[in-house]
Amino acid sequence: MSHSAKPGETYYAHQFEDAAQSHESITLGMWIFLITEVMFFGGLFAAYTIYRAQYSAAFDEGSHMLDITLGCFNTVVLILSSLTMALAVRCAQLGKMTGALFNMVLTLGLGTVFLGVKAVEYTAKFQHGLVPGPNFAPHGVHSFGLELYYSLYFALTGMHAVHMIIGAVILMVIIGLTAKGKINKTYNSPIEIFGLYWHFVDIVWIFLFPLLYLLGRH
Amino acid sequence: MILFGFNLLPAQASTAALSVDLVYLYIVAVTVFFTALIYGLVMFFSIKYRRRSESERPKPIEGNHLLEIIWIAVPLVIVLTMFAAGTIVYFYIFHPPKDGIQMYGVGKQWMWKFQHPDGRREINDLHVPMGTPVKITLTSEDVIHSFYVPAFRVKTDVVPGRYVQTWFEATKPGEYHLFCAEYCGTEHSRMIGKVIVMKPEDYAKWLSGQDVSSTGPKLSMVERGAKIFQDMRCATCHAPGTAAGLGPKLEGIYGHDVALEGGQTVKVDDGYLRESILLPTKRIVKGYQPLMPTYQGQISEEDVLSVVAYVKSLTPQAAPADAVAGGTPSDAAATAGTAKD
Amino acid sequence: MSGHVVPLRIYFGIFAALMLLTAATVWAAFQDFGILNTVVALGIAILKATLVILYFMHVRYSSGLVRISAVIGFVFLVLLIGYVAADVASRGWMPAPAPIQSAPLH
Amino acid sequence: MQTQKKPSYLSADHTIGSWLLTQDHKRIAIMYLVAVTLFFLIGSILALLIRLELLTPAGDLLQSESYNRVFTGHGVVMVFLFLIPGIPAVFGNFLVPIMIGARDMAFPKINLASFYVFLAGGVMILSAIVFGGLDTGWTFYTPYSSSYATGRVTIGALGAFTVGFSSIMTGLNFLVTIHKMRAPGLTWFRLPLFIWAHYATALIMVLGTPVVAIAIVMVALEHLFGFGFFDPTKGGDPVLFQHLFWFYSHPAVYIMILPAMGVISELIACFSRKRIFGYKLVAFSSLGIAIIGFLIWGHHMFVSGQSAYAGLVFSLITYIVAIPSAVKAFNWTATLYRSSVSWKTPMMYVIGFMGLFAIGGLTGLFCANLAVDVHIHDTYFIVAHFHYIMVGGTIMGYLGALHFWWPKMTGRMYSEAWARLSAIFVFFGFNLTFFPQFLLGYLGMPRRYHFYPEEFQFLNIMSTAGASLLGLGYLFPIFYLMWSLKKGEQAPANPWTAKGLEWETTSPPPTTNFDKTPVVTEEAYAYEK
How many domains does chain D have? Predict the structure, then answer.
């Protein structure tokens, strides 16, 4: 579908009256989707809150087992990727497509670094037999609540990782379209919208990091 | 209440039944009145103002604030009275009394297993005396069931992993339906039984009659609990009467608060005792090491109920009768039969 | 053009603030504030999330409708967690029957 | 004002691709209509099987497993594949853009995607029912669904998850379209109440569906990998699943009834030629139902082990949510005062709706009551209550909408006599089916029972008789509406001389709805002009 509009004019779809209405609608649409994402992760956060209150000893022990340096590193990587994504959106708004392309590739790189670190942490869990299910090797004293902790750990970080992977794939598509010129000065709302999604995934990690890694360290 | 040959209300066979039915009939009256009002007006207006000719242009009526306020305020008051009635009945009638018999029940996929305090066990049927409150503590061994006796207007979901309490006081002798009201699998509709309400003297006679269901000497729950306490070698850590062994002493703790590791305190009730048996490291008493192994899967829910009853009997209660019934632990151990049912 | 363009120094300022707050939350985790630890950890996380929402996601420069939709998700999430926590906390309140002994009847 | 004959959206293009890959909200609505009707038929067949089984106290028609699968299938298909998408996806998709003077939905591609995601979810659910069957009830309660259920729980549950995703897309589309694409002059208080109702429904779809989605994902994780979320042997709490499930599923019953209320407002205004009495209050009570609807899910859990004090709060707020529905009922009745009521088929469904919705709504007061609910929870009283709301309310609204906008959607009129006869069949068949179940419920017959004690048989026979009458009533429309497609007379642009933007364009409307975007100058339902 060709997105070339008259020069200086931004492109907008046929059902909209003008570019402003198109932009507002698309932004509002993305924000409403983010509401559903907040409620989606919310269910897991509710379960975490309830079980943390009931099994605080086991949850403390569970969070002690996590590698905090990897957690900190991942948080820094993700916040950095949020910055580069914001810069990419800014470049797109100013029409500097090469700058946007560069920043987006940086964001993609940081995203894959984050997923790589996650993969390392997961393999460590598999080796120590900390994956809930029939072969969950209970060790440590509070083994009873531990399986619940790791169920929530894998559900929360797993769901977050799935959202990262989907984000990375979409980012690759956008990078491809920008490189080919399909996304250009007159039509760059996909970059802006993807920026909102990426920042949301960063916010989820901002909450996950303290809840899973830090509580109970003292 | 009989109408056209079949009754509209189930038998009122418990103290709670009448008050629940009164709240029910009050709401029925409100429903009938408002349905007749709304539907009557709709039919009346639709017929009285039916369209005579296509060119009719009725005068527009924007609205009327007074009317709007009236039909917000009046329904609000009515529903609040319903709320009040329901809550009063719920909290007073469903408030468990102090006295009465304590029974135990276990829901298992597609059967009910009841235990009387004197150890009598029944499957699907439950004999209860008339005129005395019967408190029943229920748990489930697998999925969620629901203990429902329509004649007593009593229902409570039986959640696995927890004790659930309910009570009733039967007022009319007879046999009443017992249903499982929460879908629990293939034979959900077969998980039914009978609650047989008997006069107190018949109940006592029935109790002393031959208990056909379990072999070996008829042990009361407390005695059975003591035997299991021995067989499972709980005494090695919780030796009754000795000073602080490896495990906290169990005498005189029932009903009181106990300090836990990490600063909280917990009231020692049936639920906490069960949890300490099945999930010991969940909440550890202050000053003790988490050494107790979990008995999850090695001890059935009925045996847990008996051990809980035994531990409760270790706490001297105000009522003197219990001391007799419970018997000192040593007697119970001595009479422990060899056969393990 | 579409949307408000945020100057570079604000982006880098916010990034620095986020880095600082991350360091702060890690430091705070190892101090023993007792029950306050959770409050501090969550407070810092909320602060970081607000910064990202306001500046990186341009909510500070967006229309009222976008602001409402940014907030309403969290409002209903707090409602869900609050109600469920209230239920779980108040389960023990219904006065369980006073502890009576078994078999008073002979 | 018949301009040169622009091709209607139906005759614009006849290739298969133009239908399957369409972005025209009207064509997507027609595809939804076909899919939703198919699912309704499957659900109805399952319902008839249940009623046949319950004709006799002994369970002699089906074995227990297959009966459990039949009632679960009836529940899941009817709730997730007919009632939730029903009016919003068919009439909402078709009419929301036209009623606000827009050319199309805000996101046409997402609209088409929502249809295919809906189909995928539907196929998953039906495959779960056909291959090995889902026998957990539509509520998927754990630990039965996560640890003990034998059937295809995971595929069935993920099917419900997928259909939920389609519902989110529809809700998102409605919210953005209503906010951003209204015609000039169309202020919020000039909007038809149909739009207000769909706005409130979209709010619930967006805020509630994700929570049941994550609950279903947790059940699937527990069923497949043994994660211990709701497994009591691992410390999980089954009541927590009920909280997450009912946080969505109670507002979901408002997703089912609010669109029907929107339809009723439209129909009453048109067939009594009068403005809706207290327009603003009726509009705000739609929003009130949607918002307060999120605070009261606990009344499904009074006996489930939830704390008594939480039950107290849920019971109080549940009584308060009854007020907006009462306000609507009174305002509709007041609209009929000094009006000119024409008893055409849509209006017959409205009059039927008024009676049945009154009973359905008022019997909700029993379930909100702490003391009475202990007795009637999980009995046939509850089954009767929600069928009065869903079948007496939503389906009467759905059929009323179908008969009201059929000329606009297809350009054909249907035979009035047959339509009125089927409306009468539906009304009396419905009452005979479900009123006896109130009595059965209070007598204590539990739900989801394959066989029951003898004393309940007489009422069950009445109910089964009613079910066959109701089934007949639902079959008629298929015949005379299909017949009208071929031989029905051509429908004028405004067959009911109704007010509303959708009646100012041709029937069936052109692909871009209007030649030029209309400007709205008068109030909603200005029937006096």
Answer: 1
